[in-house]
TrEMBL record, chains A, B:
Keyword field contains Repressor: yes
GO molecular function, one term: transcription cis-regulatory region binding
UniProt keywords, alphabetically: DNA-binding, Repressor, Transcription, Transcription regulation
Presence of the UniProt keyword Cytoplasm in the record: no
One Pfam family matching this protein: Peripla_BP_3
Boundaries of every HTH lacI-type domain copy: 1-53
Name of the protein this chain belongs to: LacI family transcriptional regulator
InterPro entries for this protein: HTH_LacI, LacI/GalR-like_sensor, Lambda_DNA-bd_dom_sf, Peripla_BP_I
């Protein structure tokens, strides 16, 4: 500030008044001061301000896979709303690795972020300590963590999967395969449960051989799909539990010399920009990715800014996903 | 720290020695202290540390579109390397809006980040002041900004586009359309230049009517493509200057009742996971997105950590892109 005052040829008090609006300053003087600020590069010192308020106006955002379009839309929504409320977003990516997540959580805590939004790669002592410590609000997104009592925004995975598998059964399929996601995650478990419910509802016996285990990745989705497709009595339809395993599934169908939907019907979790451009246009479960981000940030803002909200018990918001039926699940008329 | 010492039943000096490794502490004592730390929630106070060192160990990362897969891989690489070196990443997204970028740059500067990596949405006084101020290192990625002398990592856009259009010409196409990107950006201008060079090289006269103006988005790409496809003498091949306009192009071809590659050959910038899964498998210019992120962070780290590097003149690193020829640009034999 001293440099600014010198450059503008005014007193320190005048600079302070102009910057903080603490006293009236003429437009001409303001102009000179702002020009000087640009020259000198003076900024309100965020560090000093943090020390005074004990807050950093920063939130930590931990996602499992930043290259997955599901997360990017959510990140974007969080970032938009955070900035509108004066919060910076410190981004960390665990790559679905619980150890990496622990490391990042420690770093974010060390940086004293004011709040956390976390799509957890799995329960860890750090995450539990953070939530149970109760000093810094934590909002989980996408995945719940068993026994962790905190705000969360997730979708109704059971219903969404049930709807999609019900759609395959309604098209006449009786041998419906599943490519699971990570069963250690709530999303993986709930989608599996939705599959079981749809089968039961349709009077189709559950066959363990038709369930391929994958971990929400394209390569493991490919492997699980290839195994299902090589069965003597292979499924006539397959549901994949996320977009990446859906991609793996499509690759496996191609490599096995099969055609979709003629030989095998496909539906999968997570819509994306490209799903309706190429052939076959993919039938997907579209999650409200933008709404997840907005809702998570709203819950966090309430905890950060409102003493009444801060006292509320943990809130779990469930949003609905939407089945988008396209070509890949519908056998052409013969 | 006082609370930790009390909870662990040891002296403050012992806690300090255990945390900072400044003196040997027995494993048993360390165990007790770490347990106490978990209970009390003690963290090295980043704010106090920042005040002491004048640095925040944070870099500001400004991208133009976080939902574009091109950027997500780059962001991921930057984030990985930054964390490995103890830097947090504050993420901002301009949505290709120069005003939003200005606002974010001010916020990041106010937070006193130690360095910037910026894919700029366009030249602004804030960006210029930041670079010319010379206090905080700035690395541009993806796009150069005219007259802004600072480190940058970009690809050789002219050569990459020339290669792709040359490939279309070599397949016998003489009427090759272009869907441009934003010509206010270096990427848009350079790719346009590569198109012109390839035509000239192939002895094809340049026709302004075959150039559709778009702004790197799917919707404007669609509109520009629809216009080209409605020409009485429409192009037999089209090159799109990024992945989103390529998607718009594919939609327009579909909606016009045309087939790719039978009626119209297609190639576009930016490879992505899905490009080789569906039909037609897309011919793309694959940018080294991961390498761009790593290289940008390396340049920034050098400026941040090495006084010798800090004194170097601006370095512009050009990386090569790779043409991946698939079905969309190759007419099937008849």
């Amino acid at each position: 500030m001293v440099d600014v005052a010198k450059a503008a040829g005014v007193s320190l008090a005048t600079v302070s008044a102009a910057v903080n609006g603490s006293a009236p300053v003429s437009a001409a003087l303001k102009g000179r001061i702002h020009k000087a600020i640009r020259q000198v590069g003076y900024k309100t010192n965020a560090i000093a301000r943090s020390l005074k308020t004990g807050t950093t106006s920063t939130i930590g955002l931990m996602v499992a896979d930043i290259t997955n379009p599901f997360f990017t839309t959510t990140i974007h929504a969080i970032q938009e709303l955070a900035h509108r409320h004066g919060y910076g977003v410190m981004l960390c990516c665990s790559d679905e690795d619980a150890d990496k997540e622990r490391m990042h959580l420690r770093l974010l805590a060390d940086r004293m972020v004011d709040g956390f939004i976390v799509a957890s790669a799995g329960e860890t002592p750090e995450l539990r300590a953070l939530v149970e410590g109760g000093r810094t609000p934590v909002v989980l997104i996408d995945r719940l963590v068993d026994g962790l009592e905190t705000d969360a925004v997730v979708i109704d995975n059971v219903a969404a999967t049930r709807d999609a598998v019900r759609h395959l059964a309604a098209a006449g399929h009786r041998r419906i395969g599943l490519i699971t996601g990570r069963r250690t995650l709530s999303t993986g478990r709930e989608r599996y449960e939705g599959y079981r419910q749809a089968l039961e509802e349709a009077g189709i016996a559950f066959e363990p051989a038709l369930v391929g285990s994958a971990r929400f990745g394209a390569d493991d989705g490919y492997k699980a799909a290839a195994k299902l497709l090589s069965l003597a009595d292979r499924p006539t339809a397959i549901f994949a539990c996320n977009n990446l395993s859906g991609i793996g599934l499509m690759r496996a169908i191609h490599d096995a010399g099969l055609r979709c939907p003629d030989d095998i019907a496909v539906a999968c979790f997570d819509d994306f920009d490209w799903a309706n451009v190429f052939h076959p246009r993919l039938t997907t479960v579209a999650q409200p990715t933008q709404a997840i981000g907005v809702q998570a940030m709203l819950l966090l803002l309430e905890r950060l800014k409102d003493a009444t909200a801060r006292a509320l018990p943990p809130r779990v918001v469930r949003l609905k996903a939407e089945l988008r039926v396209r070509d890949s699940s519908v056998r052409p008329a013969r």
